[in-house]
Design goal:
The structure is a homodimer of 662-residue chains. With 662 residues, chain A is of the alpha/beta class. In chain A, β12, α7 and β13 form a beta-alpha-beta unit. The first copy, chain A, starts with 23 loop residues before the first strand and ends in a 12-residue tail after the last helix.
Chain lengths: 662, 662
């Protein structure tokens, strides 16, 4: 199958003011990464401007771009500097990687038709770790994948081909520098990826990645010493186990000297972990960290740990408390090359959640913010949901862990507590569909994640506009239209799905479409406990106390029904249907209104999309149109199920007399 | 894995009054079937009485059993006669099969310690077809299987071994004479079972079956001409298709001259069928029937056809109408070697349904009654549910299609309309667990089904008692205890699950455990539409009109809320929670009461089982005990989910003040 080039699709461009810079490259440093950078420049110059670049190893007279190393440590491992000297643009960095990122910046600028002189002089990423997590299974399926099969694995074989390289280019172009290639639920033989059996082939991917400044990570099975090594235990304090992992690490680094490390889902949803041996997560993680430490590797340990066998009758246990309860207490016990990876919200990637109280709560522990580009609960790349605004809200959230520099962005960038191993990670939305992300517009989330991880102060709108102009050649009017479609899509999705932070209400297992009580009496700790008069779980200080996991001013904010942000009302409070919201509407009427509105908004989105019929290429236009039609059907079903559910519960009609099915 | 012998476990027996008959067999006819009968007698005599039987080909002086053919056509294909002449028991039949059934009868009598002279002189089965349907997939899993893997198929290979033979013995011993070995959802390559690729191996099973009087059937994929034959259509009126099936049939009969025919699930739940080509089911079935006709084969065509993509907002479509609507109108159009297989109820094997109105509605069409031994919706062989009482109710149901001989038993036995190709079929509950049926006591359903299909006038209690005494050596007191456990189990299961015929309310897909609204907004046509005040779908003449599919006196019975049998009230009516039942209780209180009672009954069952601790072998005792413990947990969860669901809906408390979770 042929695949597309997304935002690296170098269409012919006319009249670019700075195209003469692309005539000559003065490459003053050699190496795989900078060579790839030069290759990219050549391809871009040829395809955009029809220019065949001349590359020289010493600086000549003609206008052009100088690529050279510098000694400016302030730029860090990934930063770069762009200056102008006479007719030359000088791109310099302390590392070849920095030059590669600078080159992609130059191309981005050109592709958008912006003058190169508008590029800031110094460009340094906010986050040191800008990571992508694949949930690709060894058999070739992708867990929560909505864009086809894996392009890494097919039927328990590793695939390496031209697409692997294009993937590395795409990722490097948005600043991604770490990729774990296999699912955190390590199954179907993927436990063996860390062994000789597969390392030669994993190395091939790692080599391609390395040429683009990307470190390869593997998700590991905590029980590997048993399942792979044939030991009788995986106890992290057992000498045999310690030794097994040390030997495994040694072997991995023999094949892949630049190997990033392990990503670990342990003691979660049936995965093995240190709890089986009465060890805590610090003991569990540190053992692995020690094995990787001699080689510079890290352990990324997910905090997605909760009781997934809860009894619905148990109203004391609150799943939203779990990550904090499991990890905040062991702050300070983790090795310096362990990083905790924390989901953005306390539950699981719902369309609306508060920020996880773990951010800011662990002063002595490296933390990575985990978001989900894959739209598991946000429309599965059938429905449009531009997620950058959600991630922005998370990053901008003030934890109040300090007077200043207390946002989530500050914490995970290391500004708050001075951590150096931290940043962002995202579960990706790619697959082997020709457009990579199923829904063409879902590529905005992939692109946006990378750009945001690099520069968390970019606005959602800036990122969207940049993605649009990198991907499509639209005039301002049509660009604005597409921008509007993207910018409103999260709110729209929220409008027609579960209201006010209550979450879930989705079909079991596959998580698409409404099922209000699907999880209500199940074991997953996801209950709304709606009755004839009220809905919600009280998570305030008077309820499960989950609000107390936040710093005091946030606790107060959420505890008080009058100050709690409306969109989170049903996350934190149990509320009668006739409760008046700030708007003066009852809760019930608010639910009806938002659900009717959500569908209307989808209809408007579709109308807007239809105005792009002439300016978007027909294949893409149709692909998106088909998905919008499915989204419309889905939104109507959500509207009707939710409205009918609450109508049946209350027998209170819509004030505006709109039709609700009985 | 070793397997058990169930009711053919010939334990040592002392003091049997008639054991001397087992000393000598006078075998006056030869052949595979009668040889197997003699073998069975030898084994039984040796194991029960320590007697080594002498077999002679002419009648001698000593006491013994004479096996011989007779010319009494009134006995039919399967009947037999038992007479006494001096010191001889004379077992005679027009066929060897009859002799085999008679031998199993003699052994059964002996095993129960009953005098042989108590056997009726003439023994003729009520039903000509006494069929077992396996839902075994070619990959080795069993759809709705709760007893391990298939013993016919493993990883797309056919297995033939000693267990195959023991299975044939077990089935023949209870009178089964037809077995379809593969799932009606024909997948995983099972479409190829009808081809040369697999027929040699299928033949091996068929040969074993034939030695025990059993005809082998295969479930076929209606799209085989495409999927196997490489044609571009499966249209039943297309000459290429007609020809393909004729050739296929010819080939099958070359391998298996005694092949029974095809079992077909067409145009149902995504299966291909004649609807794809705008042909009706008669056209679809007759084409296959014509291909089989020259060889004496039949087509068994399932009537489980309904719209499985219903919109929950559509209140006009009523799934319960579907089988009748699809088939009653084409009565008279089916070939004489087509048999329609009709599920006992109009929906799908729920714990309580009315009888399908199709019975008695098709005067010119062969019909088989389909029941489900596998406990898909009745506890999955974790919870105990002795199903013979349910089947008895179905068989005894008066359709009023005629003045007399109008019960379902009459219809499917051929007494009503004179059909000759008819009887009963059952989806079986077997797998490769050592005890065959997962729950040891679930073997009573397998045994009971066979015995009932042979003699529909046996009572549930007679059958249960017979099974107990065939399986366990208990004194009268303990036998009574086990009988009580079995006899009450269906009512108990009904008490703690979905009330009064409403059905469903189960977890999606796997169908174990409660989920009241799991299917409520789904596509399967299974809605209860409960709101704050009432629950149920009106299927009366004023509602969907489904009651009008019955003959008038039944229509009147069900239409009237006062005459409708209470256990079916929520199948036929929409009823307010405060409606007073005959008992004087409100509907809601009835629901609360039955659900509390259901759990109490499980607790009582367990206490009864515990009194058998000393008299049931420890392995079996423990296996059953473990399942009872799981049943108790399940019943409590059902009780609490159902009660909480209705409490949340109504906020009306239990009158007796028992605890209902909020």
């Amino acid at each position: 199958m042929k695949w597309e080039q997304l935002w690296l699709n170098y269409n012919k461009t006319t009249n670019y003011i700075d195209k003469e810079y692309f005539a000559n490259i003065y490459q003053m440093t050699q190496g795989d990464i900078v060579n790839n950078a030069v290759k990219e420049l050549k391809m871009a110059a040829m395809e955009m401007f029809g220019i065949s670049i001349t590359v020289e190893k010493s600086i000549g007279e003609k206008q052009g771009i100088i690529l050279q190393l510098n000694n400016d440590d302030s730029l860090g491992e990934d930063g770069y500097q762009i200056e102008f000297e006479g007719s030359k643009l000088v791109l310099s960095a302390p590392t070849q990687k920095g030059i590669l990122y600078g080159v992609f910046h130059i191309i981005r600028q050109a592709k958008q038709g912006e003058p190169l002189r508008n590029i800031h002089k110094k460009n340094i990423p906010n986050n040191k770790y800008r990571m992508i997590n694949h949930w690709d299974d060894f058999g070739g399926n992708i867990e929560r994948g909505y864009s086809g099969k894996s392009f890494f694995f097919g039927n328990r074989e590793i695939m390496v081909n031209e697409r692997t390289k294009d993937y590395a280019r795409l990722m490097a172009s948005i600043g991604i520098n770490q990729i774990s290639i296999n699912n955190v639920n390590v199954r179907e033989g993927a436990s063996w990826l860390v062994t000789k059996k597969y390392l030669p082939k994993v190395k091939e991917i790692a080599d391609i990645f390395e040429g683009y400044g990307i470190k390869l990570f593997l998700s590991i099975n905590y029980a590997s010493p048993i399942d792979v090594g044939g030991l009788d235990t995986a106890d992290p304090l057992d000498d045999k186990v310690i030794n097994w992992w040390q030997e495994a690490a040694k072997e991995i680094y023999e094949y892949i000297p630049n190997f990033g490390g392990f990503l670990v889902k342990a003691d979660s949803e049936g995965r093995p972990g240190p709890f089986s041996y009465n060890r805590d997560h610090a003991q569990g993680a540190n053992m692995l960290a020690k094995a990787l430490e001699p080689f510079g590797g890290v352990v990324i340990w997910r905090c997605f740990v909760y009781n997934c066998r809860q009894d619905w009758r148990d109203t004391k246990t609150d799943r939203a408390r779990a990550a904090y309860d499991n990890f905040a207490t062991i702050d300070g016990f983790f090795a310096s090359n362990v990083i905790l990876q924390v989901k953005n919200g306390p539950v699981d990637f719902q369309v609306r959640e508060p920020v996880s109280p773990l951010f800011g709560a662990m002063k002595s522990t490296n933390q990575i913010l985990e978001v989900q580009i894959a739209q598991e609960y946000t429309g599965q790349q059938i429905d449009l949901c531009y997620l950058v605004p959600m991630w922005k809200e998370v990053l901008d959230f003030r934890t109040h862990c300090k007077e200043k520099l207390d946002t989530v962005a500050d914490v995970v960038a290391g500004r708050t507590f001075g951590h150096v191993k931290c940043g962002m990670a995202a579960v990706t939305n790619t697959g082997d569909d020709s457009n990579w992300s199923g829904h063409d517009l879902a590529a905005a989330n992939l692109y946006g994640y990378g750009r945001l991880a690099w520069n968390t102060s970019l606005s959602s709108e800036e990122i969207a506009r940049e993605w649009i102009s990198m991907t499509y050649n639209l005039d301002k009017m049509h660009e604005d239209t597409l921008l509007e479609i993207l910018m409103g899509s999260w709110a729209t999705y929220e409008n027609y799905t579960s209201p006010l932070g209550i979450g879930w209400m989705v079909n079991i297992s596959h998580h698409y479409g409404p099922n209000v009580e699907g999880y209500e009496y199940d074991v997953w700790g996801t209950y709304h406990r709606a009755n004839h008069l009220a809905i919600g779980v009280d998570r305030t200080s008077k309820g499960t106390g989950m609000t107390q996991q936040y710093y005091p001013s946030n606790t107060r904010l959420y505890d008080n029904i009058d100050t709690c942000p409306q969109e989170l009302l049903l996350f934190f409070h149990r509320i009668p249907y006739n409760h008046k919201l700030q708007s003066g509407k009852t809760l019930l009427q608010h639910i009806y209104d938002t659900h009717f509105k959500g569908v209307e908004e989808v209809e408007e989105m579709i109308k807007k999309w239809e105005t792009l019929n002439e300016v978007i290429c027909p294949v893409v236009y149709e692909r998106v149109k088909v998905r919008f039609d499915r989204q419309l059907e889905n939104s109507k079903n959500w509207r009707d199920v939710i409205n009918t559910y609450f109508y049946r519960k209350t027998l209170i009609k819509d004030e505006k007399g709109r039709h609700i099915y009985e």
